[in-house]
Structures are given as structure tokens and as C-alpha cells.
UniProtKB/TrEMBL annotation:
Alphabetized UniProt keyword annotations: Membrane, Transmembrane, Transmembrane helix, Transport
Protein name: Amino acid permease
Annotated membrane topology: Multi-pass membrane protein
Signal peptide annotation: none
Primary location group: membrane
Length: 706
């Protein structure tokens, strides 16, 4: 598909995009402004904001590992609360991100003006166009640029903190009496002022949310998204708290409250081990790197919102166009144009409040979305990370966001209301007639007998299939232990079900009739999955210890009428797969089923399997990964040393297993005492590195003899 993005981003990319999006205005610009609301305790406001974002971060991590799709908050809200809320959340978050990005890029121009006499906004526009070019090249190259920014920035900020703590508590920069004066009054406006300040600087942590807008491009999202977000929050929270504490301790209160570059002012009194003004120069360079990092990550993540909404027909479809480099070209151009417009028209404190207010509203919706998804009982909602303390964590997140919105005042609330109204009008007059889906909330309502949108389950199943198996899912083991039935004479569906029920009755020690009745019922209620030439039966039983599979391959088409209620048989049926799992692990059953579907819906799969004569070949075909190798034991080859030895005597890497042996056209699972014979074909499973080594050692050097 041309409108799918490449999965190129790893854990460090996630950390770099998230962290890089947070260290700009939050550290280099906002501390002085935020101190107006709470005084010297402003460093606590930063740390409080980091704690208050935790519930929303947990909720975002859960949904994004279940739905790793471009569009972040928009996609979550659309699929949970419906396309109307998706439109509101998508447009609102899109504007909030662009405002924050524009503000950061203006910072580049402001700091550049310290060194060169050039117009601030001219520099900002040139920087925006540069970031646009980077984003057009691809997310991986964009994130590579991001990693350089973030690494450089962290080194300088850690140096700033170490030098600051040393100067305050070991050096003679400030006396203890003067230090006490700096922190008095501590809470200038009480606890209310502290919360107002926390709400104001809340925008400093919004880089955490930027990750989910590129979730579709993240490798192993179930691990990398939550881990990357947690690492980013810990590092950022510590640097914010300690860094702002140092600024408060060093800079005179009145100067600090009105200073737009407090980090540079603090540095001018520190770094005594460097030449004159070197500290200011160092922090100014760090600020430029921070603003560039935020601008780059902001454009990357913001452009995915119109891309995702265009793909879902809520915005014009042209916004979902993918370029030759695998990036959303039109969405990037569109976003760049808006950011340049904001650079030309807008500025400072009000923008921060507006961005924070709408983001807090989105957090309310996202926390509610987790509750909706869990209550909807959609089996294919399968997050790789579950938010702790559900639903208490989500309720706390909703309450926190409401409180902070109230503290931020009426003007940002009115702006947020305006964005909501604009989104409602856009949905009513542009999107409503083009979008037929509904969200997971209708599945929750279905418990009350109301309408639900079945296509949502199909979409989540598709996402589940794309995510693939989770570590620990016993798909390979189930394939290896599966029973293969080869029918060379004509058979009808009843005979197939009889044969399969006999096998499962012995395997699971259950009544044959009850097993057959379950398979027949699955035909009648259309739960059997139909693919061209293939039927896939899947049922769950109590007290099943391990998944079990049987595959029937018929050289001739299976005859007889297949008693479907609604589904149509897709071409003559030659393959029937039967998968039984415990009812205690429905998610695992779905993941294994989706993996099986992914393999069996490939082109010419029936033709390929019918051409195979051995059970080993069929099982290897179903494994479909790089974690196995087949080795044939031949005299005069490097593997001939195995011949005549027990399997336990053969030295193989610790992380590999001889799973199957084919001997005289029969396939069996060996044990340690199995004696290997000439012409045996071994199927060896293991870690990719070890399998690659075995392939080069056995297959690679001897492939001319195969």
C-alpha cells in the first residue's frame, strides 16, 4: 500500500524525538515567565508538572501500543469516541503542536540574533524550510539529525547542572545567607500559584505526546514506545528540576522574573574554569540546538496529523499522499506553510497557555478513551503495555487536567472552545457524509442493546496482524508440534471434520462429538475465516494447557456443501487449518490467528503448499521467518560429523533447537537420545544470529550439494 509509512525508528529514536521536543522554550525561555505565578518554587512547578502528566502518559502508552498508527491523539480519539471527537482532537492537537513548533523556531532566530545582526523571523523561516527538507528525506534521517541535537544538548545541560551544583554548594559563588534570600518568598502565591505555574509549564512536557504521532514508523512499538517515553520523562524531569533550581539560586529574583534567556544569564556567573563569556556562548549554542531539535521534531510529528486525517477522509485525501522517500509530502508542505504563518503573526506567553490548555483537554479525552476501549470488550484491542492502576489512573488523569485548565484562566479556555467549534463545523459540512465508521464507545453501548460498528474490530485485527507476534507467543512451537493430514483421495467437509476431531479428542482428551459440534457451529455462525482456497477454524476451550493445531491439505478440492450462514466459499477449498487455544488467553489466540492469516493469505499459497510432499516442508513454510535453517546430513560435508551421534552429543549453540527431523519421508520431533542418520533433514530453530552462523557454516558452504 502506498499510504503506509516505513517502520524505521528504534528506542533511541523514540527517546531523541521525545526529549528533543521538550528541551527548548521549557528550559531556555519559560522559567522566568513561570516564576511570576509562584516565585522561587518554580522549579517545583516543573517537577510537579512532570508528575501530573504521568496518568496521561500511561494512557497514551497503552493505546499507542494497541494502535501504532500515524496521527496520535487524533487516531486514538477517532477509534474510541468516533470521528467527530477524532476531528476535534486531531485539529486541536495539530494546531497546538504547530504553535509550539513555531514558538521554538522563533527561539532559533532570537538566539541567533545574539551573534548576528539579522531579523529574527527571517532566520526562523529559513530554519523551518530546512527542517521541511529534512522531513521530506525520511523519518529515519530526520531522527538521525534529532539524535545529534539531543546528544549534544544533554552533554551541555548535564555540564550546566554539575557546574551549577558545585558552584552553589562547594564553590564560593553564593553564600548560604544569600541562597536563603534567593528562595524567599518560596511560594509567592500559595499552592494555587504553584498549580498555575505547573499548568503553564505543562507545555514543556508535550514532547511525550509527539512520539505517538509517529507510532506507525516505530519498530517494536510495544517495547519502544512506553520505554522511550518513561526514559525521556525521567531524564527531562531531572534536568528541568535541577536546572531551574540553579537559575533561581543564582539570578536575582527581579531579574529572573523578567529574563527571556535565564539559562544564559546563569551561565554568565558560572563556568569559572572556562574563558570569559565561554559559558554564555556554550548555553546559547545549546539553546539553538534545543530550539532546532524541537522545531525538527515538531514538524515531523505535526505533519502526521493531516496525513492520518486525510487517510481517514476527515481532511482532503491529497494530504495522505506518500512521496518516493516514504514520507507524507503534501502534509509536510501543508504543515510548513502553517508554521511559517504563525511565525509571522504570533508570539510568546499567550501561545504557551493556549497550547497547554488544548493539550490538557486532549488528555481528558485520551484518559477516557482507555476506559472506553477496555469496557468495549473488543478482543482485538491488544495493547502491549497496560496502564497501571486502571481505572483509578485514568480518573486521576481526567481530574488533574480539569484542575490545570481552570488554573490557566478564561482566555485559553475561550480559544480552545473556538477550535472545538471550528472542528465541529468542519466535520458537519465536510466530513460527516464521507465517514461511515463509529468508535469503540458504540461497542460499550452495545451492552445496552445499541448499535456497534463491526468494521472497527476488523481494523483492529488488521493492526494486530501488522504488529505481529509478541515475545513468548508459542506460534513456532505450535506449528512444529502440529499434525499435518495429507488427503490424496477426494473427501468432503464432514470427513475432514471427523478426521480432525479424532486427532483433537486424543490430543486434548476431550469428547470427539463436542469438538466436532464446535467446528460445525463455527461454520454456522460465520466465525470461520475464509481465504482463497483456505478455511481457518479457531476455537477456545477451558483447561487447554498449550495451543494445538492441525492442518488438512487435500490434493483434490474438498467436496460437499460447506454450511456457512452468510460467508461465501472463496474458490475450491484445498487447505483447512484448525487452531485450538485456552479461553484464558484470548489475546494470544488472536495474535497467533492473525499470524496464520498473514501467511495463508499470501499469493499462490495454495499452489505452493499443494506442491509440497513432506510435513517438514509445510511446517517450514508456515514458520515464515529467519529463525530457522534446514540442514541435510550428507557424507563428505561439514555436517557429516553429526551422522551416527545422539542429538545430545552434537555441539550446537545454546540458543538453537533441533525442532524437526525428516527421515524416509516421515517427519518427527526428536529427543536427546535420537541417533542422527545420513540423509536426515534437520529443521533447527533459534536466535537469528546463531541461525545465520549455522546457515553460513552448513548451508552456505555446502549449498552446491543440495
Amino acid at each position: 500500500m502506498r499510504n503506509k509509512l516505513k517502520k524505521e525508528l528504534g528506542l533511541f529514536d523514540v527517546f531523541a524525538i521525545s526529549t528533543g521536543a521538550m528541551f527548548s522554550s521549557g528550559f531556555f525561555l519559560l522559567p522566568g515567565i513561570a516564576s511570576h505565578y509562584t516565585g522561587a518554587s518554580v522549579f517545583l512547578a516543573y517537577m510537579l508538572a512532570g508528575v501530573l502528566i504521568l496518568p496521561s502518559m500511561f494512557s497514551i502508552a497503552e493505546i499507542s501500543t494497541a494502535l501504532p498508527r500515524s496521527g496520535g491523539a487524533y487516531f486514538f480519539l477517532d477509534r474510541s469516541l468516533g470521528p467527530l471527537m477524532g476531528t476535534i482532537g486531531g485539529l486541536g492537537t495539530y494546531f497546538a503542536l504547530m504553535l509550539k513548533t513555531a514558538f521554538a523556531i522563533i527561539g532559533i532566530g532570537a538566539y541567533a540574533a545574539i551573534f548576528w545582526e539579522i531579523p529574527t523571523k527571517t532566520v526562523a523561516i529559513v530554519a523551518t524550510l530546512f527542517f521541511m527538507a529534512l522531513n521530506l528525506i525520511g523519518a529515519k534521517k530526520t531522527s538521525a539529525f534529532q539524535k545529534v541535537f539531543v546528544t549534544f544538548l544533554l552533554v551541555i545541560l548535564i555540564t550546566f547542572i554539575v557546574d551549577g551544583v558545585y558552584s552553589i554548594y562547594v564553590g564560593d559563588l553564593i553564600s548560604k545567607q544569600a541562597l536563603d534570600t534567593q528562595f524567599s518568598p518560596f511560594l509567592s502565591d500559595g499552592v494555587g500559584g504553584l498549580f498555575t505555574s505547573a499548568g503553564f509549564v505543562f507545555v514543556s512536557y508535550l514532547g511525550l505526546t509527539q512520539i505517538v504521532s509517529v507510532a506507525e514508523e516505530i519498530k517494536n512499538p510495544e517495547r519502544n514506545i512506553p520505554l522511550g517515553m518513561v526514559l525521556s520523562l525521567i531524564v527531562t524531569g531531572l534536568i528541568y528540576g535541577l536546572g531551574v533550581f540553579i537559575m533561581v539560586a543564582i539570578i536575582e529574583p527581579e531579574t529572573f522574573a523578567n529574563e527571556m534567556a535565564p539559562a544564559a544569564v546563569a551561565a554568565s556567573q558560572m563556568f569559572s574554569w572556562l574563558p570569559d563569556n565561554a559559558g554564555v556562548l556554550l548555553m546559547s549554542i545549546a539553546a539553538l540546538a534545543a530550539f532546532a531539535s524541537t522545531g525538527n521534531a515538531g514538524l515531523l510529528s505535526a505533519s502526521r496529523y493531516p496525513f492520518a486525517m486525510g487517510r481517514d477522509k476527515l481532511l482532503p485525501a491529497i494530504l495522505s499522499k506518500i512521496g518516493g522517500k516514504g514520507t507524507p509530502v503534501v502534509a509536510i508542505f501543508f504543515t510548513t506553510a502553517f508554521i511559517i504563518l504563525f511565525i509571522l503573526l504570533l508570539s510568546e506567553e499567550g501561545i504557551v497557555k493556549l497550547a497547554s490548555t488544548f493539550q490538557l483537554l486532549i488528555f481528558i479525552f485520551i484518559n477516557f478513551s482507555v476506559i472506553v476501549f477496555r469496557k468495549s470488550k473488543i478482543e482485538s484491542y491488544d495493547p502491549g503495555y497496560l496502564s497501571p492502576l486502571y481505572p483509578f489512573m485514568q480518573i486521576v488523569g481526567i481530574v488533574i487536567s480539569f484542575i490545570l485548565i481552570i488554573y490557566l484562566g478564561w482566555m485559553p479556555i475561550l480559544f480552545t472552545t473556538g477550535i472545538v467549534i471550528m472542528a465541529l463545523l468542519w466535520y458537519r459540512f465536510h466530513a460527516q457524509g464521507k465517514v461511515k465508521r463509529e468508535g469503540a464507545i458504540f461497542h460499550w453501548f452495545a451492552l445496552l442493546g445499541k448499535y456497534q460498528y463491526d468494521e472497527l474490530e476488523n481494523e483492529l485485527m488488521t493492526i494486530l496482524k501488522e504488529k505481529g507476534l509478541r515475545q513468548g507467543d508459542p506460534f513456532d512451537e505450535t506449528v512444529i508440534k502440529s499434525k499435518i493430514g495429507m488427503l490424496r483421495t477426494p473427501a468432503d467437509i464432514d470427513k475432514v471434520l471427523d478426521k480432525v476431531s479424532d486427532y483433537f479428542a486424543a490430543e486434548l482428551q476431550k469428547d470427539k462429538k463436542s469438538i466436532k459440534d464446535r467446528f460445525v457451529k463455527s461454520l454456522l455462525d460465520d466465525s470461520v475465516i475464509t481465504l482463497p482456497g483456505v478455511l481457518i477454524f479457531h476455537v477456545k476451550y477451558k483447561n487447554v494447557l498449550n495451543p494445538s493445531m492441525q492442518i488438512i491439505v487435500s490434493k483434490t478440492a474438498i467436496s460437499g456443501e460447506i454450511p456457512f450462514k452468510n460467508n461465501e466459499v472463496k474458490s475450491p477449498i484445498h487447505i483447512c487449518c484448525f487452531l485450538i487455544n485456552t479461553d484464558e488467553k484470548p489475546k494470544q489466540q488472536l495474535r497467533m490467528l492473525s499470524r496464520l492469516i498473514d501467511i495463508l493469505e499470501r499469493e499462490d499459497v495454495v499452489k505452493a503448499i499443494l506442491a509440497m510432499d513432506s510435513h517438514r516442508e509445510i511446517k517450514e513454510y508456515l514458520l515464515q521467518n529467519e529463525n530457522f535453517v534446514s540442514v541435510k546430513l550428507l557424507e563428505g560435508t561439514s555436517q557429516s560429523a553429526m551422522i551416527g551421534r545422539q542429538l545430545m552429543e552434537v555441539q550446537l549453540p545454546k540458543d538453537v533447537l533441533v525442532a524437526l527431523i525428516e527421515r524416509n519421508n516421515k517427519t518427527f520431533t526428536p529427543n536427546g537420545s535420537t541417533v542422527l542418520q545420513e540423509d536426515d533433514i534437520l529443521t533447527i530453530l533459534g536466535e537469528a544470529k546463531s541461525i545465520s552462523k549455522l546457515f553460513k557454516g552448513y548451508v552456505g558452504s555446502e549449498k552446491e550439494k543440495w
